Amino acid sequence: MLHSRRRFTTVPAVFLAAAVTLAAAGCSAGRDGEAVAATSPHSAAAERPPSDTSGWTLPLMAYRPTKEQHSTLVAAEQTLVRTCMKDFGLQWAPPADLPPLGPRNEMDWRYGTHDTAAAATRGFQPDPAQAARYQKTLRAAQNAPRHSPDVEVVLGGSGLPPEALAAASPEVRAGTFHGRKIPKDGCFGQARRRLGTETYGATALASGLFGRSFPESLKDPAVTAVFARWSSCMKGKGFTYKDPVALFDDARFGREPHPVTLLETSTAVADTACRGALRVAEVWHAAETRLQQGYVRAHLAELEADRRSIDASVRNATEVLANG
After folding, report:
1. pLDDT at position 134
2. What is the C-alpha to C-alpha distance for residues 236 and 224, in angstroms, rounded to an integer?
């Protein structure tokens, strides 16, 4: 995924500001993402709006918790952990949620956003206000008082690293706190058993296939062809990259927080123009959709069982919140 390729040390992956005006010199889009020669700067292809990924999905997303379901599972887990800790006479509150940073949805993270203004003003950098809020929240979490070793064990149980267990009191290492038995794997383990999931509903099969389809999509003939056209378009604008992945990995544009440069904004604008005109994201998404459809056919029974498990966990979580 795009966001797994370029990371800051203090801010998570910077998103690729992608796709601008479609009137790229010498590049326009034909039907189904095929490139055709631009006949006019005012051609119909050049006037088509940038890609809007807000309605996009992928087949395997049907076998993953939705954003709302994930939030329900997290909230229920926190409720159960809070109650468990209270039974031990301890007050516990979850850390604050990190504010959003980067593209508006998962598809933008996956294939690159289409934001002309962002490309021209900040290149590949996140919105400064978003980044500031994110870093402030992250610093607050990092500077928050730490739990004592005993409390950490009550939270996480005997599955904690050996050094964490070694720092706890003899009573806690023996499995009790103030005379009360610590649940297996602590209050978090107890909560996850009640909900029926240790991963907020995400399953190893669906997650593994979802991660696998992205690198495999890079080998799809339609994707390699559109990448080659993108590379040619970029070269015509003075930038040499084999494909968008090489651009995502350019260390000048995201290894560390840095001031935005003219080179960065120029590269981002060229990229968005070429990707938008050639409909790179659409071709890429279509290829990954085909791959995932094949995965679903091959693993349908297992995936449907996973989906039933997710639904059961969400029902459990909903019940916890209704009674909490």
Report:
1. 87
2. 18
